[in-house]
Write a structure and sequence with these properties.
Protein name: Lactate dehydrogenase
CATH class of the largest domain: Alpha Beta
Pfam families: 2-Hacid_dh, 2-Hacid_dh_C
CATH architecture of the largest domain: 3-Layer(aba) Sandwich
GO molecular function: D-lactate dehydrogenase (NAD+) activity; NAD binding
Domain D-isomer specific 2-hydroxyacid dehydrogenase catalytic: 4-331
Bound molecules: 1,4-dihydronicotinamide adenine dinucleotide
Number of domains: 2
Keywords: NAD, Oxidoreductase
Structural class: alpha/beta
Length: 332
């Protein structure tokens, strides 16, 4: 059995090699992305794994994988919206994911964003850069224990985030289409989305991106958010309409936004941008320049524990499929 690992990052190499050694299975490393141009490299392999935010939507990729005898793309991610699941199915390719690799990694970044923005750290640092260390009224902050935190999507990551905020003393409320039985004692459910938005000082998004959740926060319902509220998105960029968020920040209705993900993030995620012109037609330069915004380029998952779990589970998925015929963590 042989596996080809696409788009392997420097920080993943040790985890890939350790898994290969421990399982006595050949895993070859390909540093490039899985694209129309690179798909033929998969010839002769039993499965491929990749980790990419660049869409894999070209039919040619799935057709050639089938031609090359590859039965599975094992994504080293939780979300699989970068793949075309129907096309994959058409060519008999299973798309598998890593549903859980470290909810704490994402939850901790959501809390970090919220605390930094609540305590006005960006404003303090900007003032400090001009030599201004004064206790100005505009940077006095609330304490998290006097805040209501609204968690939208109370699954694995949302509930972990809720527990961290509760541990800090916040009152936590939630909204979800399904109530999580493990949420009892951690959060109370709001009656609906509007109810959650209107009661929360901090709103944190932890949903998958689907047709139903596209622009879940938009110009019509963002107005229900509390005056001075903070919005955090570590889910998927398109869960919110960024133009609506910017309008509410500009008007002063919202205090701040913590954005680990953005709808246009493929422009910059995991890249060093030397040519700023590339970002010119996007909201990114504006977001980067603001003290009321924390922009992290999809870093929430980026912890040692999460990376190790992502690599090993994705390779386990391929091993299991090949050895038992069972497709675990299938998404199509
Ligand atoms: P999960 O499946 O455990 O929880 C998602 C929750 O969203 C579920 O409880 C579900 O009922 C709820 N939901 C789905 N559609 C809904 C709707 N229309 N309205 C209200 N609730 C709805 O997923 P998990 O593991 O908590 O992950 C959540 C999301 O976080 C992932 O889908 C992924 O997009 C994102 N993520 C982001 C990462 C990052 O690095 N920034 C890393 C990992 C995940």
């Amino acid at each position: 059995m042989k596996i080809l690992a696409y788009h392997v990052q420097e920080y993943e190499v040790d985890a890939v090699k350790n898994w290969a050694k421990n399982n006595d299975i050949q895993v070859d490393i390909e540093y490039g992305l899985l694209t129309v141009d690179s798909v033929d490299k998969a010839k002769g392999y039993d499965g491929v794994t990749t980790q990419q935010v660049i869409p894999v939507k070209d039919e040619e990729i799935y057709r050639k994988l089938k031609e090359n005898g590859v039965k599975q793309i094992s994504s080293r991610t939780a979300g699989v919206d970068m793949f075309d699941l129907d096309l994959a199915k058409k060519y008999g390719i299973s798309i598998t994911n890593v549903p859980q690799y470290s909810p704490n990694a994402i939850a901790e970044l959501a809390v970090t964003h919220a605390m930094m923005l609540l305590r006005n750290i960006n404003h303090i640092k900007t003032a400090q850069a001009t030599g201004n260390f004064k206790w100005e009224k505009r940077v006095i902050s609330k304490e998290i224990r006097s805040c209501v935190v609204g968690i939208i999507g109370t699954g694995r990551i949302g509930l972990t985030t809720a527990k961290l905020f509760k541990g800090l003393g916040a009152e936590v409320i939630g909204y979800d289409v399904f109530k999580n039985p493990n949420a009892e004692g951690v959060l109370e459910y709001a009656s609906d989305l509007e109810d959650l938005l209107s009661r929360s000082d901090v709103v944190s998004l932890h949903l998958p991106l689907t047709e139903d959740t596209y622009h879940l926060i938009n110009k019509d319902n963002i107005k229900f958010m509390k005056e001075g509220a903070i919005l955090i998105n570590t889910g998927r960029g398109a869960l919110l309409d960024i133009d609506a968020v910017l309008a509410e920040l500009d008007s002063g209705h919202l205090k701040a936004a913590g954005l680990d993900v953005l709808e246009c993030e493929t422009l910059y995620v995991n890249q060093k941008i030397d040519d700023r012109e590339k970002l010119e037609d996007s909201p990114v330069p504006n977001l980067m320049s603001r003290d009321d915004v924390n922009l992290t380029g999809h870093f929430a998952f980026f912890t040692e524990t999460a990376v190790d779990n992502l690599v090993s589970t994705s390779l386990d998925n391929i091993k299991c499929h090949n050895e038992t015929g069972e497709v675990v963590n299938s998404m199509n």
